Amino acid sequence: MLIEITPDAYDVDLDLRYATADNIAGRPIYARAACYLHMDAAALLGRAVALARPLGLRLRVFDAFRPAEAQWVLWDSCPDPEFLADPRRGSPHSMGAAIDLTLVDGLSGEPLDMGTGFDATVPESHHGCIDLSVDAQRNRALLLGLMTAADWDFYRNEWWHYQLFKPRGRYPVLTDAAAGTRMMPGTGS
């Protein structure tokens, strides 16, 4: 069961990149900007938000549930298994079990420096990369600490990607129609 993640309900910022041209495909993939997670992942997002709040930080979400057909669009644009799950295998995003996000200052809304942008398909995006400023390394470690303390697993090649532990086999891969999210072009709004 997918739950819609809204700024009011979850106290997060939304910057849903795949509803814009500001992504690795260079064009909007979603016809409707909406953010969903499986209810298990939504509960862990709530934990992460609660951990960030006393530190004066907020979470900004770039992507969460990604319909299976959107995963194909991304794969066709950038078929790099170092940064994208092969859609034939299934992405944790397409299960509602993954989230892409960053930290922002709770007062100004300015994003913390993470050394690279979201979806940067470069080695500097990897966790543990030390060829970054000290501030970027510290901010990544802070995000990693908050998310792992909230029981999220991380993907070693993307500082922004977190997922439920071992989602394959536990959660089904969903299309836009099966999920009922109406995010993809031609499915209505």
Automatic annotation (TrEMBL):
Any single GO BP term: cell wall organization
Cofactor needs: Zn(2+)
Active site per database record: E158
Domain of life the protein comes from: Bacteria
The enzyme's E.C. designation: 3.4.13.22
Residue(s) at site: Transition state stabilizer: R66
The keyword Ribosomal protein appears for this protein: no
Keywords in alphabetical order: Cell wall biogenesis/degradation, Dipeptidase, Hydrolase, Metal-binding, Metalloprotease, Protease, Zinc
NCBIfam families assigned to the protein according to its UniProt record, in alphabetical order: PRK10178.1
Protein role: Catalyzes hydrolysis of the D-alanyl-D-alanine dipeptide.
HAMAP family to which the protein is assigned, alphabetical: A_A_dipeptidase
Similarity-based family: Belongs to the peptidase M15D family.
Name of the featured protein: D-alanyl-D-alanine dipeptidase
